[in-house]
Design brief:
heterodimer; A: about 575 residues; alpha/beta; Rossmann fold; 3 domains; 6-stranded parallel β-sheet; 20 strands; about 15% strand; globular; B: about 170 residues; alpha+beta; Alpha-Beta Plaits; 2 domains; 5-stranded antiparallel β-sheet
Chain lengths: ~575, ~170
């Protein structure tokens, strides 16, 4: 608080500090000069990225690793439009970020001024809300609202567009203590009657399955999920974004379901008589053929977003609200539950035994799955970030995740190039943890310029490239469904990743034989800076099991079973 | 099935784009949309007519509710509400036909708001059926131009929408 007038730029810094922001990922530009001049003296840690898309992904990774709101900053026009992919990514995965963009001065808006883009118009469908600040007096309230909206209810990105004159205008700054929006009520409470009905549906079921999504992690209800599963003796499968919500070492864990899930998760869902969905949205990668999904099951859908109810599947009982509160209440109604007959868990256990995840190990060529297993062996507590494609699925399948916020991946949007900048954000947010980006050679090349960021800012992450010289997931589909016509997916011999790392004054390691994998990992772990490991893996390895597009999820195939 | 929604929104720039953008990207069809300030100048009211079954209606309303600038949404069932649209119709009229057209207009309680040597402009208000009926009647004279507003609707009786916020 101050009585003497201050500039909008200084006020913005004050607002961010009031919101507890310690880190900004950004890139300067013309209209941001006044703001960057204030950042120069500020104790907020600014990480200079090398492309604005990566500022948004880094803020996203920071948010997923810490649970706090991530902040990114870009200049007007191309700076702002470069954020778009990162904002869309955060929107699809419900990640709380606040994106701040510079804008041309208010009198010039609409005149096609130099570096002008209508970023609030462009981001309308990919933000939870956005603002164009037209009066510096509105700035503190807008920032307060932006953080409130981004972090509450179903989280998501909020964009604040800040014209240059707003950053230089002066006013008497005060920061609002609280905010009230008559059109936004994230604290919906819970419907106790619905919870009671859920409890009685659980008591009546014989073959229940819990299907947990990213909402369990967002709402910090992993311990409640574990308690519920153990109380009702129900197996738990998670979505890709739900990985980490339930310990995979627990006997009740079915790991991931869906297109590249485990066979036993998919079988269990298909045979269940009750599906308890918690913070999940019945994405097409989960459900496969929607009409054939969980055909015998009644569906309880616990979600904070009423718009998710019935969007993709018919729901028998919606329970709207915060998953943590709902699960606590649900557990209290189930305390007196009798021990369930072991028949269902016995059946599920038999599937687990019969259909484990598997691949054929080799002594000649490195199998990508083996790399993931060795990374787990060497560093089970790492935060694993992934790129998108085969690398992402192998990471999801072959690492063993025990805790929330340890698996960070682009689920909804499937953004190649996400992993490395998100790993940077995760490491900045959690400097105490080892952060490993399990990457593909295709994805990594989309954002590899951020090697400059980690070099200059002295951030240590490990980029473990499962280098198969192909855009592997597309190549896999070309092999299986397009007569092995590998149209534009061969990216072999395009870059020497070891030299690339060295060019940025970082460490590059290459492993070409299975025997070299463990030492490459341990060398990377002990290095004092970012390491790029080029694991030269079997180029033709495929992700299995898999559900072909349009099939029911129990039609999940092993190699050789795909027609 | 057709639904008439009364949506109270913040009277701010860009709100119409947020609402119409939501409809187009989610694939919901708007049959008609009318916007205007309410008795509270901070709040605008949109009357949106949408076509769809109950599931579509639930999706529309729950997605609309997610917009921060949307304050309240009410479904106005036909039996409990009154609605009106307005159309201006420019119809060819000469000395031979003018009297007959004016007679048709009076039967529909429409007003003649402009008379020219070769045309009349007729203002008609009412439900969709009435406006279509007068158009049908005027068709044979030669309709030159029609412009319609979106429909607006209110509950019958004492009931209002979004009471606590207005």
């Amino acid at each position: 608080m101050t009585d003497t007038p201050i500039s909008g730029a200084k006020a913005l810094i004050n607002c961010l500090k009031n919101e507890g922001v310690d880190t900004i990922f950004g890139y300067p530009g013309g209209v941001l000069l006044p703001l960057y001049d204030e950042l120069y003296d500020s104790d907020i840690n600014h990480i200079l990225v090398r492309h604005e898309q990566c500022a948004a992904h880094a803020a996203d990774g920071y948010a997923r690793a810490t649970g706090k709101v991530g902040v990114c900053l870009a200049t007007s026009g191309p700076g702002a439009t470069n954020l778009v992919t990162g904002i869309a990514n955060a929107y699809m995965d419900s990640v709380p970020i606040v994106a701040i963009t510079g804008q041309v001065p208010t009198p010039m808006i609409g005149n096609d001024a130099f570096q002008e883009a209508d970023i609030t118009g462009i981001t309308l469908p990919i933000t939870k809300h956005n603002y164009l600040v037209r009066d510096v007096e509105d700035l503190p309230g807008v920032v307060k609202e932006a953080f409130y909206i981004a972090s509450t209810g179903r989280p998501g990105p909020v964009l604040i567009d800040l014209p240059k004159d707003i950053t230089t205008d002066e006013f008497e700054f005060t920061y609002p203590g609280r905010t009230y929006l008559r059109g936004y009520h994230p604290d919906v409470g819970i419907d106790e009657d619905a919870v009671k009905r859920a409890a009685s549906m659980i008591l009546d079921s014989e073959c229940p399955v819990i299907y947990a999504g990213g909402g369990v992690i967002i709402s910090d209800s992993s311990s409640e999920l574990l308690k519920l599963a153990e109380t009702i003796q129900a197996p738990v499968t998670t979505t890709l974004l739900g990985i980490g919500a339930f310990p995979q070492s627990n006997p009740l864990s079915l790991r991931m379901l869906g297109m590249h899930g485990t066979k036993y998760a998919n079988y269990a869902v298909q045979e269940s008589d009750l599906l308890i969905a918690i913070g999940a949205r019945f994405d097409d990668r989960v459900t496969g053929k929607i009409d054939a999904f969980a055909p015998h099951a009644k569906v309880i859908h616990i979600d904070i977003d009423p718009a998710e109810i019935g969007k993709n599947v018919r729901v028998d009982l919606p329970v709207i609200g915060d998953a943590k509160t709902i699960l606590q209440s649900l557990i209290s109604h189930l305390q007196k539950m009798q021990t369930r007959s072991g028949a269902w868990l016995g059946k599920v256990g038999a599937w687990k035994k019969k259909h484990p995840l598997s691949y054929v190990q080799s002594n000649e060529v490195i199998k990508p799955q083996y790399v993931v297993q060795e990374i787990h062996k060497a560093c089970p507590d790492a935060i694993i970030v992934t790129e998108v494609g085969q690398n992402q699925m192998w990471a999801a399948q072959y690492f063993q995740f025990e805790n929330p916020r340890t698996f960070i991946t682009s689920g909804g949007l499937g953004t190649m190039g996400y992993g490395f900048p998100a790993a940077i954000g995760a490491k900045v947010g959690r400097p105490d943890r080892t952060v490993i980006d399990i990457a593909g050679d295709g994805s990594f090349q989309m954002t590899s310029q951020e090697l400059a960021t980690v070099s200059k800012s002295k951030i240590k992450v490990i980029v473990a490239i499962l280098n198969n010289s192909y855009l592997g997931m597309v190549r896999q589909w070309q092999e299986l469904f397009f007569d092995e016509r590998y149209s534009y997916t061969d990216i072999s011999q395009s870059v020497d990743f070891v030299k690339l790392a060295e060019a940025y004054n970082l460490v590059g390691i290459r492993a070409e034989k299975p025997s070299e994998v463990p030492s490459a990992i341990s060398e990377a772990l002990s290095a004092d800076r970012t390491v790029v490991i080029d694991f030269v893996v079997d180029p033709m390895e495929n992700v299995f099991p898999m559900v072909p597009a349009g099939a029911a999820i129990n039609q999940i195939l092993d190699p050789g079973e795909v027609a | 099935m057709r639904h008439t929604l009364a949506v109270l929104v913040e009277n701010k720039p860009g709100v119409l784009a947020r609402v119409s953008g939501l409809f187009s990207r989610r694939g919901y069809n708007i049959e008609s949309l009318a916007v205007g300030m309410t008795e509270n100048p901070e709040i605008s009211r949109m009357t949106i007519v949408v076509e769809g079954d109950d599931r579509v209606l639930l999706q529309v309303t729950s997605q609309l509710s997610k917009l921060i600038d949307v304050i309240s949404i009410s479904d106005l069932p036909p039996s409990e509400s009154v609605d009106r649209g307005l159309a201006l119709i420019k119809v060819a009229a000469d000395t031979d036909t003018r009297a007959e057209i004016m007679q048709i207009a009076s039967i529909f309680r429409a007003k003649i708001i402009d008379v020219g040597a070769e045309t009349l402009v007729i203002e008609v208000t009412g439900g969709k059926g009435k406006i279509r009926a007068i158009e049908d009647m005027l068709d044979r004279f030669g309709i030159k131009e029609v412009v319609r507003t979106g429909r607006v609707a209110l509950h019958r009786g004492t009931k209002t929408v979004g009471g606590e916020y207005r």
